[in-house]
Amino acid sequence: VQLQASGGGLVQTGGSLRLSCAASGDTFSNYMMGWFRQAPGKEREFVAAITWSGGSTYYSGSVKGRFTLSRDKVKNTVYLQMNSLKPEDTAVYYCAAARVTLSLYDRSDEYDYWGRGTQVTVSS
C-alpha cells in the first residue's frame, strides 16, 4: 500500500488549504484513513479519521468545526479541507491507513501504513 499526500503550503491566518492523500496497492473497502500532524518539538497528534466504507468521520477537538475529511472511492483519495487556519495548525501533516476500522483511531500506532508528510505553514 502506498499513500501519497499533497496539498500543503504557506497560508495566512484564516485561510484555507485542502490536503489530498491518494492511496494505491489494495482495495480499501474495510480500511480506515487518518490524518496526523507533527509540529517541531512536539509529538505526532491525531487530526481526523474516516471509515472508507461508510464515511464516518472523527476529529480532534482542536480542529472540529474547521476541518472536514472526505473520501472519493473512485479516485481512492481522501481529502482534508482545512478552513479558518491558525498558526498553531502549522505542522507536517501525514496521512495513514489501517486495514480495519479502528476504535482507537486517534492512536498513531494503530495504523499500518503511512505516507510522507506534507508541510502546512500558517503565518500570523
Shape: globular
Please provide the ordered H/E string of secondary-structure elements: EEEEEEEEEEE
Give the averaged pLDDT, no decimals.
97
- Structural class of the helix and strand makeup? mainly beta
Helix content: under 10%
**Which band does the percent of strand residues land in?**
over 45%
Distance between the termini: 37 Å
Number of strands: 11
User: How much is the radius of gyration in Å?
Assistant: 13 Å
SS summary, helix count: 0
Please characterize this protein's 3D structure:
The chain is built from no helices and eleven strands. It has strands at residues 2-6, 9-12, 17-24, 32-38, 45-51, 57-59, 67-72, 77-82, 91-98, 113-114, 118-123. A hairpin with a 5-residue loop joins strand 5 and strand 6. It is globular, with a radius of gyration of 13 Å. The mean pLDDT is 97.
What tags apply to this protein structure?
11 strands; 124 residues; four-stranded antiparallel sheet; mainly beta; 50% strand
Topology readout:
Blueprint: E1 2-6, E2 9-12, E3 17-24, E4 32-38, E5 45-51, E6 57-59, E7 67-72, E8 77-82, E9 91-98, E10 113-114, E11 118-123
Parallel strand pairs: 2-11
Antiparallel strand pairs: 1-3, 3-8, 4-5, 4-9, 5-6, 7-8, 9-10, 9-11
